[in-house]
UniProtKB/TrEMBL annotation:
Species the sequence originates in: Pontibaca salina
Lineage: Bacteria, Pseudomonadati, Pseudomonadota, Alphaproteobacteria, Rhodobacterales
Gene name as annotated: surE
Domain Survival protein SurE-like phosphatase/nucleotidase: from-to ranges: 3-195
InterPro entries registered for this protein in UniProt: SurE, SurE-like_Pase/nucleotidase, SurE-like_sf
E.C. designation(s): 3.1.3.5
Cofactor binding comment, as recorded: Binds 1 divalent metal cation per subunit.
Binding-site residues, a divalent metal cation: D8, D9, S43, N96
Protein name: 5'-nucleotidase SurE
Function: Nucleotidase that shows phosphatase activity on nucleoside 5'-monophosphates.
Subcellular localization: Cytoplasm
Length: 260
């Protein structure tokens, strides 16, 4: 198996090392793992691409490249430049530092990379490690992802449904904020929404008097609706959410027929 890995935390992020180990286990001795990751952190850039400027790409080692672009840029660089003569069988994005459940999915560069791969016709899975009181202070807070990641990926790839549609599936996987031994299992879950929490800004002034705004996230320990991604994560389960790039609100189409 040939695997392309990327992330949004950057080429030197510890989660990318975890991802490389998971990918190597999945690929097997005869497989190949290639890395094309952002040269600098790109968290929160979602599915953005560097459409109006070129990006520099540099070889950092054997099958290892850094690109000055977004995670989606890195996927395109991998598919159309680095691995153009033999495309990967699957694209893996992560392991993200922090969860991409619920509304976080909409901002995530980790998911943006998986979405781009799906748009390019390549199976793709995004992996994220939820942080919380049970794992934040551990020597390896990615322990749940590291120990359960390869098994979860094998299950998804073996069960990957072939469905009709212009937009292919990609998968959002979030590992719960607990030590590996406390992971209860896997739940296939819809994307949730954390009620009463959202992103905002926090103003600060520099010593020179200039005003700056920091983007600030909401309470990540707030569960979403029962059975949805953040809820099952906080219950100790790995969530697997199938997704598409289709943003249509299908449930509203018939309700709007009267305006035609």
């Amino acid at each position: 198996m040939r695997i392309l890995i990327t992330n949004d935390d950057g080429i030197n992020a510890p989660g990318l090392e975890i991802m490389a180990a998971i990918a190597a286990e999945l690929a097997g001795a005869a497989g190949e793992v290639w890395t094309v990751a952002p040269a600098f952190e790109q968290s929160g850039v979602a599915h953005s691409i560097s459409y109006t400027r070129p990006m520099m790409i540099a070889k950092m080692g054997e099958r290892r490249y850094a690109a000055e672009g977004s995670p989606a840029d890195c996927v395109m660089a991998g598919l159309h430049d680095v691995m153009k003569d033999a495309r990967p069988d699957v694209v893996l994005s992560g392991v993200n530092r922090g969860n991409n459940s619920a509304e976080n999915a909409l901002y995530s560069g980790t998911l943006g990379a998986a979405m781009e791969a799906a748009l390019q016709g390549v199976p793709a899975i995004a992996l994220s490690q939820y942080y919380g009181p049970r794992n934040f202070g551990m020597d390896n807070p990615f322990e749940a992802a590291a120990q359960h990641g390869a098994d979860v990926l094998r299950r998804i790839l073996s069960a990957d449904p072939v469905l009709e549609g212009a937009y292919g599936l990609f998968y959002n996987v979030n590992f719960p904020p607990v030590p590996a031994a406390e992971v209860k299992g896997i739940r296939v879950a819809r994307q949730g929404a954390r009620r009463g929490t959202h992103y905002g800004v926090e103003p600060h002034s520099s010593p020179s008097g200039r005003r700056f705004l920091w983007i600030k996230g909401g309470n990540q320990q707030q569960p979403s609706a029962p059975g949805s991604d953040a809820a099952v994560n906080l219950e100790g389960y790995v969530s697997v959410t199938p997704m598409r790039a289709d943003l249509t609100a299908h449930d509203a189409l018939d309700l709007l027929k009267e305006i035609e």
